[in-house]
Amino acid sequence: MDRHYSPLSRILHWLGAMAVIVMLTLGFMMFFADSREVKHFSEAAHIGVGFFAFLLIGWRSVLRLYQGFPEPAHTSTERVARYLHYALLLTMLILIVTGPLYLFTENESLSVFGWFAVSFDLRVLEWIHEPAEEVHKVVGTYILPSLLILHIGGGVRHFYKQRN
């Protein structure tokens, strides 16, 4: 397989990147909200966007598994980049699972902009609620932003290295 991603993969990457930035922004708005109204608005928007981010990232993951992965990494820089990609994907998977999990374990619905709701009664797993919530907050507040900074820095480095 060649080292390049298909146009569809690139489009899904950038749509996913935009979704992640919106999700992070809304998550930080929730976390640092001064008023109850801002907290509720940002939480509802975070959940709605998260539903579509789940579909988008799911589609991208299935496509990647179907198309395969680019060539194995040869240099240490390529290996670091590959591990960073894996860490980002694992981080997003953790967030996509823990977000709905801590809603469903309290039998709360995942409301998508008031258009429809997704609900699973997982109260039998209520002991997971607090750990899922804490993992979601820590990973979303500290780990994902750190990995994104490294990813963007690597992209900028790669861009300028290709130009020279």
TrEMBL record:
GO biological process, one term: respiratory electron transport chain
Entry superkingdom: Bacteria
Transmembrane segments: 12-32, 44-63, 83-104, 142-160
Localization (cell): Cell membrane
Pfam family for this entry, one: Ni_hydr_CYTB
Cofactor: heme b
GO CC annotation terms, alphabetical: plasma membrane
Name of the featured protein: Cytochrome B
Provenance organism: Idiomarina seosinensis
Organism lineage string: Bacteria, Pseudomonadati, Pseudomonadota, Gammaproteobacteria, Alteromonadales
